[in-house]
Design goal:
It is built from seven helices and six strands; from the N terminus they run αββααβαβββααα. By secondary structure, it is α/β, with parallel strands linked by helices. The chain has a single domain (3-168), classed as Rossmann fold, CATH 3.40.50. Helix 1 (3-21) crosses helix 3 and helix 3 packs across helix 4. It is globular, with a radius of gyration of 16 Å. 35% of the residues are buried.
């Protein structure tokens, strides 16, 4: 397989897994307070063995394609955690230096009082990850509801492994 076919295979398998495990239709209230006719509980995919393997491989492929060479990857707990860990493990498997970190919603009130836990140091090049981007609020402090545009307008490059359109086109009515 070449890089193009690897990418297609990984993305197709991740789409299929997300559609089967994580995508639901109905009436849902999102964290933003908006109502939606679909909900993506990505954790049902990102916390599975198969999901971790696919996300790690596809995510690492996208980092490489973008020419990004972060030293660490992480984001706001809980959604970003398995994504970051999958990327760090995939990088290790290829002999690449990439560690993970977790950002707490609030700093601990005991122990070291850290808000960022794991392999992170000030000034280190990092990639921030999310399991789902809706408004961009969590990653900035895609359900294709403006989150990508918010982040890009703030000067951040965004790479989506799978979009809501990718999944919704696959779901049966």
């Amino acid at each position: 397989m070449n890089s193009s076919s690897d990418h297609y295979y990984l993305k197709q398998n991740l789409r299929d897994l997300l559609t089967a495990r994580s995508l639901r239709r109905g009436d849902f209230v999102l964290a933003s307070g908006k109502h939606s006719s679909f909900y993506i509980d990505a954790r049902l995919t990102t916390m599975s063995g198969e999901g971790l393997a696919l996300i790690g491989a596809l995510g690492l492929e996208r980092l490489t394609a973008r020419g990004w060479t972060p030293r660490a990857v992480g984001g706001l707990t809980l959604g970003a955690d398995p994504v970051a860990y999958a990327l760090a493990a995939a990088a290790h498997g290829r002999g690449l230096p990439l560690d993970a970190f977790t950002v707490r919603k609030q700093a601990k009130t005991h122990g070291t009082g850290k808000r960022i836990e794991g392999c992170f140091a000030t000034g280190m090049p990092v990639v921030i990850v999310e399991d789902v981007i809706t408004t961009g609020g969590s990653a900035h402090e895609d359900r294709e509801e403006g989150g990508r545009a918010v982040l890009e307008q703030a000067g951040y490059a965004v790479e989506a492994l799978v979009t809501a359109s990718d999944l919704l086109g696959k779901m049966h009515p």
